[in-house]
Structures are given as structure tokens and as C-alpha cells.
């Protein structure tokens, strides 16, 4: 049997090829960039071929590198999964999930009984603290953030698309001073979520009302508190259509029959290598299809 190169060198090559960056691959493998570079160079010396070329500060696979990746990546993935399956306690699989409270209460919790029935061995540790993306790999396995886009160095899947809804309490739609047209927003306060800072700008620009200014703009880091503030007549909350529909709160109404697509979405996000872990894979394969219908 022919002598094989070190498995660590092959693993390094696959990660750099998938992420396109020495730095990102080093972070994924918990190595320094120089250490990772040495592993890739060792594989190139073993093969006697260059596997990468540098273009505009990015690493690009050569033809030999592409051919090698196609042939060995599936085997590496299968090896990783086999080791993970044998080394994991099959009775309890645990996933550390970072998630926003409103998404958890409206979108996740109603479906968890179905997840438990399908995968009784899978258990979730739910973390609703801020900055979930920055904590991936350091306390969290998966994050479900609300964002325009996700760092391409991470694996991500958009969980549906949404529209911008101006949401108000019924009090603001009644009486002589009721909010009836978008121009009337100049007489009230706008409520904005800190993770969706441009929502109001997107809405007014879509309506050709770039100069429209409300009395004030109040910022929240809690979607649930925004809905409560709107229900109490404290202002008009600019949120997603799903926030209103899933709230099913008779105190709240949508203002204006205007369709404006939101640039913000919820996302499934994790480090690429995390998908090799069985708890992450099971949760991903269950969750993502829920938002594709």
C-alpha cells in the first residue's frame, strides 16, 4: 500500500479549499495561520504539485487542487461523520443554539414537539443573548440571527423572505388624529429594532417619501417589547410581516396596504465544519425545510 500524506495536511487542504482563506480555515481548525500554511505546503511537497494559486489576496484552487478536492472531500466528510457518530453519546445529542427571543417564541417553540418526536435524542440549549454570530464555535453551535446577509466564511441558509409591516395599536387608527396615510407618520414616533436599523428608511424610500421624518425614532433590542410598545400606542413599529401574523394580537393592526420587501431575514448560520456534527446536521435538516414551503 502506498504511503499516504498526514491526515492533518489533508484536513487543512480541504478546509482552505472550501473557505478560500488561510485565516478562516485556521480559525475553523483552531490553528494559527502559519501552522495551517505549513500543513498545506507539506501536502503540496508530498504530491509535487501546487494546489493553490493566489489572486487578488484570495486563494484559488489550481486544476490539480480542484481534482484532488473532488476526490477526497467526500471521504474526509464520511470519516468525520463516522468518528463523530462513534464518539458521541447516542442517548443524548446536545445542540447549543443562539436565537432571538421573538423568533424562538413565534417560530421555534411551536414546532419543538415535532422535533422531539422525530429526534428524541436531540436536546437544545437555548441562548437568547446578543451577538450570536460572533460566538459560533465558542459556546454556540448554531445561530439564528436577523440580518441582511451573513459572512460568507460561515455556512448560512435564509429562513424565508419577509415584507416590512408598519404595526400600530388600534388606538392610533381611531379618532380625529388617526394615522391613515404614510404621510401621517410625521405626527408619531417610529419604533425600530437595533438588528434592523434601516427598516423605516427602506419603507419610506419605497414609497417615494425620502423626506418624511417622524417626531422621533426609538430603538429596541427586543421584538416582543416593540410589539407591546406599539400595542400601547407608543408609536408605529417597523417590523416583519411574520412578527404581526404570528403575534395574533387583537390589539395590533397593520397600517397601509403597501407591499415593501424587507432586506432583513432570519438565517440559519454555523461554521462550515459544524455541519459535520450530528446534532447540527439533524437540526439543520429538520429546520430549513420548514421555511422552504
Keywords for this structure?
elongated; Arc Repressor Mutant, subunit A; DNA-binding transcription factor activity; 13 strands; alpha/beta; five-stranded mixed beta sheet; 10 helices; D-Maltodextrin-Binding Protein, domain 2; LysR-type_TF_proteobact-type; 3 domains; single chain; 20% strand; 293 residues
Explain briefly what this protein structure is.
With 293 residues, the chain is an alpha/beta fold.
What does this structure look like?
- The chain is 38% helix and 20% strand.
- It is α/β, with parallel strands linked by helices.
- The chain folds into 3 domains: 7-87, Winged helix-like DNA-binding domain superfamily/Winged helix DNA-binding domain (Arc Repressor Mutant, subunit A); 93-161 and 265-291, Periplasmic binding protein-like II (D-Maltodextrin-Binding Protein, domain 2, 3-Layer(aba) Sandwich), CATH 3.40.190; 164-254, D-Maltodextrin-Binding Protein, domain 2, CATH 3.40.190.
- The radius of gyration is 24 Å and the shape is elongated.
- The mean pLDDT is 89.
